[in-house]
Structure formats: C-alpha cells, structure tokens
Design brief:
It is built from 2 helices and 2 strands; from the N terminus they run H-E-E-H. With 75 residues, the protein is an alpha+beta fold. A hairpin with an 8-residue loop joins strand 1 and strand 2. It is globular and about 30 Å long. It starts with a helix and ends in an 18-residue tail after the last helix.
C-alpha cells in the first residue's frame, strides 16, 4: 500500500524521486518506499537512513516544509 501511495504521488507531481517513510524519530525506518522516474536508480537503503538522520536535524519552515542544503550539512 505504501508503494502504491508513493508511486501515485510521485507520478502526479512529476517528480524524479519521491520517498515515503514510517517510523520513530531517531531510529531506522520501519517502512519506506521510493518512487523513481524512468532512468533514475533507486537509492540504497543505507543512504535513505543517512538522509533521514539529516532531515531530523533540519528545522521546518512556517508551513512545515524542510529545505536541505548539501553545503550546510555536517559531514
């Protein structure tokens, strides 16, 4: 069901990649699904976990959106 949802959202928004994740903050995801457009390779699971750890540190804007910038991410 999660795969279907992320595929529908990704296709509707014409994204090259969309990620849906469920789990407790600070722990690896319990469930994750990724939409990839044609010609885009899926992200390895370890990289998804690293991305999520960076997202947990980001402060949301007034609408709840997150902007991640590689130039300001810790190594």
């Amino acid at each position: 069901m999660l795969n279907t949802a992320v595929n529908e959202v990704g296709a509707y928004l014409h994204c090259s990649r969309a990620l849906a994740v469920f789990g407790v903050q600070g722990r690896p995801p319990e469930m994750a699904a990724e939409f990839c457009a044609a010609g885009v390779r899926a992200t390895p699971g370890a990289q998804v976990v690293l991305l999520l750890s960076q997202m947990e540190k980001a402060q949301p804007d007034e609408l709840g959106g997150l902007t991640l910038k590689a130039s300001t991410a810790p190594s």
